[in-house]
Design goal:
There is one protein chain. This protein has about 325 residues and is an alpha/beta fold. It has a domain of about 220 residues: 3-Layer(aba) Sandwich (Rossmann fold), CATH 3.40.50. It is about 40% helix and about 15% strand. The strands form four sheets. The chain has a seven-stranded parallel β-sheet, with helices on both faces. A two-stranded parallel sheet has the order 7-10. Strand 5, helix 4 and strand 6 form a beta-alpha-beta unit. The longest helix is centred in the first third of the chain and has 22 residues. The radius of gyration is 19 Å and the shape is globular. The relative contact order is 0.14. Bound molecules: nicotinamide-adenine-dinucleotide and uridine-5'-diphosphate. The site of uridine-5'-diphosphate (UDP) has 14 residues, from helix 5 and strand 8.
Length: about 325
């Protein structure tokens, strides 16, 4: 993989920074671009001195003129709190960002991977979710800026593929967690760990019976890398996630046990359109990428808790 020039958009974010780590270690020339909306220079500070790593401030809603062989398009806030803060900008980032990166890919004949999401399935009425399920998404709700933006980005990917023969790869990422998540980003894993470490109440939305499937970041990045280098005729979409399914109450209990915290649970209203369940069918990833997650929730939470301890000085 030497001499491959790779662009990572959103590279200073949680997933993007781990992806940059792997690509730099593999010898790629990595150009990381980010507007630092939810990401931070700190996440990639350790890479700044490397000869094959470059960081550039750029907003993907504006065109970018660079020469690259591969594009990983991750730029987009992922936490509901952040993507709902400026919903118009969220849609612009997904849609204009995809158009700009696809335009770049077309001009330089690069292969492009889109970080899509399990949110394209909305509040699903089938379980587990397979890639051929079209989803149950509210087009006008408070999550729509993210869900519909990501759905439109998938549409653009496939139209560029059909219309311009662009090499595309679409991965649908299920809830992923690990070190470098933002402590205040409002996602459930970071919220529960930070609350437990500070001895604050653990905020359960609704009754806590809704489920999510949590993938450790290292497993996710391995899946993305395998997808990017898979044969050109395999374009996806492909689910990447851990099929272990947990209620939010179960997650809270696990976090309390692993942190040794005595925090109490407190119940808050369930946000609008909050999906009741999420569980990937990963048969396609297993068959076409030889990929399956290797890290259990308990094993992945341990280094994540250690990270938050260091961030909070706990
Ligand atoms: P994150 O918020 O940590 O990272 C997103 C990065 O994109 C940040 O660094 C942010 O500053 C940057 N960004 C946002 N808008 C931008 C813009 N207009 N131009 C340039 N950069 C911009 O979130 P993450 O968890 O690392 O998610 C990365 C990608 O993976 C996102 O596209 C997200 O939708 C997708 N995803 C993540 C998860 C998950 O559980 N972590 C699940 C499904 C999909
Ligand atoms: N959640 C919760 N307490 C929190 C944060 C989130 O109970 O402090 C719930 C939320 O309502 C959702 C689930 O945890 O049902 C996952 O939320 P997150 O924001 O992490 O991601 P989502 O999968 O909803 O995009």
């Amino acid at each position: 993989m030497d001499d491959v020039s790779t662009l990572v958009t959103g590279g200073a974010g949680f997933l993007g920074s781990h992806l940059c780590d792997r690509l730099v270690a593999a010898g790629h020339d990595v150009l990381c671009i980010d507007n630092f909306y939810t990401g931070s220079r700190r996440n990639v500070a350790h890479l700044l001195g490397k000869p094959n790593f470059e960081l550039q401030r750029h907003d993907v809603t504006f065109p970018l003129y660079v020469e690259v062989d591969r594009i990983f398009n991750l730029a987009c806030p992922a936490s509901p709190v952040h993507y709902q803060y400026d919903p118009v900008q969220t849609t612009k980032t997904s849609v204009h960002g995809a158009i700009n990166m696809l335009g770049l890919a077309k001009r330089v004949k690069a292969r492009m991977l889109q970080a899509s999401t399990s949110e394209v399935y909305g509040d699903p009425d089938v379980k587990p979710q397979r890639e051929d399920y079209w989803g149950r998404v509210n087009p006008i709700g408070i999550r729509s800026c993210y869900d519909e933006g990501k759905r439109c980005a998938e549409t653009l990917m496939f139209d560029y593929h059909r219309q311009h023969a662009l090499e595309i790869k679409v991965v649908r990422i299920f809830n992923t967690y690990g070190p470098r998540m933002h402590p205040n980003d409002g996602r459930v894993v970071s919220n529960f760990i930070v609350q437990a470490l500070k001895g604050e109440e653990i905020t359960i939305y609704g009754e806590g019976t809704q489920t999510r499937s949590f993938c450790y970041v290292d497993d996710l990045i391995e899946g993305m890398l395998r997808m990017m280098e898979s044969p050109a005729d395999f374009v996806g979409p492909v689910n990447i996630g851990n099929p272990g399914e947990f209620t939010m109450l179960e997650l809270a209990e696990l976090v309390l046990r692993l942190t040794g915290s005595r925090s109490k649970l407190t119940f808050r209203p369930l946000p609008a359109d909050d999906p009741k369940q999420r569980c990937p069918d990963i048969g396609l990833a297993a068959e076409r990428l030889g990929w399956a997650p290797t890290v259990s929730l308990e094993d992945g939470l341990k280094p994540t808790i250690a990270y938050f301890k260091s961030v909070l000085g706990a």
